[in-house]
Amino acid sequence: MLLSNAGEIKLADFGIAKATNLPGSIQSGALKGxxxxxxxxxxxxxxxxxxxxxxxxxxxxxxxxxxxRPFDGENDLQTLERARSGRRRRLREASPATPAVLAHAIExxxxxxxxxxxRHAAAxxxxxxxxxxxxxxxxxxxxxVRSAKTRETxxxxxxxxxTRAAPTLRxxxxxxxxx
Length: 179
Description:
mainly alpha; Transferase(Phosphotransferase), domain 1; two-stranded antiparallel ribbon; 8 helices; 2 strands; about 40% helix
C-alpha cells in the first residue's frame, strides 16, 4: 500500500514483477505470489477470476484493520488450509471498532468459495457506498506522509495496523528540458 502526500491510498504489489527479473523464476504450473494472500482456488490450481483477486484484497483489508492477516498459520500449508476452510477470527472480534457494514463487506471477500464472494470490484464498492469516510481522514493521512519524509518512522495513528520504518524520500534531480 502506498500513501501520497495528499493522503490518497494506492494499492501496489511488486512481488511477482521483481521475481520475473530472476532467471528461471517464472515456470508454467508453479504458484506465483505470496501464500497468505492467495485465494484457495488459486492455491489448488483451479480456475481463477476477479473473485480470486477480491479474496486477496479482503486479506489485505483485514490485515490493515486487525494488524495481522486472517489465515496466518505456522507454515504455508497451514495458512492455505485455513484459507480453504475459512478458519479465522471474525473481523469484528479482531478489530471491534470496525463498522459492522465494513466488516460484513470485507468478510464477504474472504469466503472460501469464489461463488459466495462479490462478482467483481464494483459489487464490493456498492457494499461500501453507505459508509462515510472518517472526517478529515485523507487530510490526516497526507500530513502523516509529509511528516514521515523528515523522520525515520511513521508515527502511530488510530486505524493504522502498525508503525513501520519509512525511507526518507529525496526529490529527484530535474533533467534539463529539451526545447
